[in-house]
Each structure stands twice: as structure tokens, then as C-alpha cells.
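R.M. (postdoc): so does anyone remember the format we settled on? I'll just put the C-alpha cells first.
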């Protein structure tokens, strides 16, 4: 399998299959265009329970699998918002914990599961829901980045505090918890909400410059009421 990321504002990843039998999977509706010689098969990709779990993690219950019937077949998957597409060899990094909505598509050797935050308060107050995505296995996975990507390599014990909506994912060596903003003035006048995501190294952290939920909220406030 070969791939290239095309476009800059609303990018897509175009995959060229080298031989028959190679495949990619994505959530329902993720495919943008494809050539002849690609067969589509929609299923729960692991059973009903895994499908239901993905629904809680912000993805679709059903996954669409696309398999090449001949060498040279091509398929493309496009991002849903303006930003970047980040290719990750999941076997080399040892797996990632990602926020819901970060997954775009992957090779069949990549596993997409749900995972729970270690502390209930982290999921309950964190702004991204109690359930995160655990991406593991072998092969390439492609992640959606809202805005531009920023990658930080945290040293052991090094801490970075981030607005939850700006977190894309992090390696499994990184610990994750929610910290309360201190001070009544900061809480009520700071405009940043009550909580920040606290990430502690060692390990790689992937951030994004746009918080799409915040952006959508601003747009919604400008829409005249009916």
C-alpha cells in the first residue's frame, strides 16, 4: 500500500493498493472517491459490542471496509473540517489514546477500541466525554487534525496543561487527568472554563490549534433565533 496526503485546507489521503486483497477501513461515510476495482463491505468490524462502544466514543457503529480486487486500485478519504491529516505507524509508536473524532481511516491490522479514563472525574468533567479511543495493532492509521498540528515530546515528569478540545492524542506512557482552574476570578472571568487537561510525560503528545467545539459554539451564537 502507498499513500499521499493531498490538499492543505481540507486535505484528503489517497491510498494506492499495490496488490489485490489489500484493504482500508473507515467509519461510515468517510470515503471521498475511489477507482474501479475496489469492493465495499459494511460491518461492525469486531461485533455488535465493539460497534456500540465506538458510538459512545463518537464514531459510527458500522465501519466500511474497502478491499482492492486488482493491483493499482485507488481510494481516498477526506477530512471533515479544515486542518491536517496525520499519518501514524501505530506499530512503531506502541499505540495511542485519542479523543473521539480523531480517527479517519486505517489498515485492517489497526485496532480501534474504546477506553476509560483512569479517573472518573477526568471523563465526567473533561469536555470530551468519559470514553476515549484506544488505537493499537500494526499498520498505518490516519488522524484528523483541526487546524494545525503541534507535537510535544514530554520528558519524564514534564507537564503540559491543555484545553481539552485542543488534545488530539498521546502515547500510552503519558498520564491523563483533569485539573481544576484555581481562583474565582479565573473561573468566572477567564473565559477558559473550569477544567484543563493535564498531561504528564514521558511520551509524545499531539495537539491541534483549533478547538472545533468552541468554534462551532461561536458560529451557533451568531445564528438568529427562529
Amino acid at each position: 500500500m502507498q499513500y499521499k496526503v493531498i490538499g492543505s485546507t481540507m486535505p484528503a489521503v489517497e491510498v494506492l493498493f499495490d496488490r489485490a486483497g489489500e484493504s482500508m477501513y473507515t467509519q461510515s461515510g468517510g470515503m471521498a472517491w475511489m477507482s474501479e476495482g475496489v469492493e465495499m463491505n459494511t460491518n461492525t468490524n469486531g461485533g455488535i459490542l465493539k460497534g456500540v462502544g465506538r458510538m459512545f466514543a463518537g464514531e459510527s457503529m458500522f465501519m466500511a471496509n474497502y478491499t482492492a480486487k486488482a493491483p493499482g486500485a485507488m481510494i481516498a478519504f477526506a477530512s471533515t473540517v479544515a486542518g491536517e491529516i496525520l499519518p501514524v505507524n501505530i506499530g512503531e509508536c506502541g499505540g495511542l489514546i485519542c479523543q473521539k473524532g480523531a480517527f479517519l481511516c486505517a489498515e485492517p491490522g489497526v485496532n480501534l477500541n474504546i477506553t476509560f479514563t483512569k479517573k472518573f472525574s477526568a471523563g465526567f468533567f473533561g469536555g470530551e466525554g468519559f470514553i476515549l479511543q484506544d488505537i493499537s495493532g500494526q499498520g498505518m492509521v490516519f488522524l484528523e487534525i483541526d487546524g494545525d498540528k503541534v507535537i510535544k515530546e514530554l520528558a519524564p515528569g514534564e507537564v503540559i496543561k491543555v484545553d481539552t478540545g485542543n488534545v488530539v492524542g498521546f502515547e500510552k506512557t503519558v498520564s491523563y487527568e483533569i485539573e481544576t482552574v484555581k481562583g474565582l476570578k479565573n473561573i468566572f472571568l477567564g473565559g477558559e472554563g473550569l477544567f484543563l487537561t493535564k498531561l504528564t510525560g514521558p511520551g509524545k503528545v499531539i495537539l491541534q490549534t483549533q478547538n472545533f467545539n468552541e468554534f462551532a459554539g461561536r458560529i451557533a451564537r451568531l445564528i438568529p433565533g427562529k
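R.M.: ...and that's the designed sequence above, right after the C-alpha cells. Also worth knowing: Helices lie at 48-56, 90-93, 120-125, 184-189, 212-222. The chain has one domain: 2-222.
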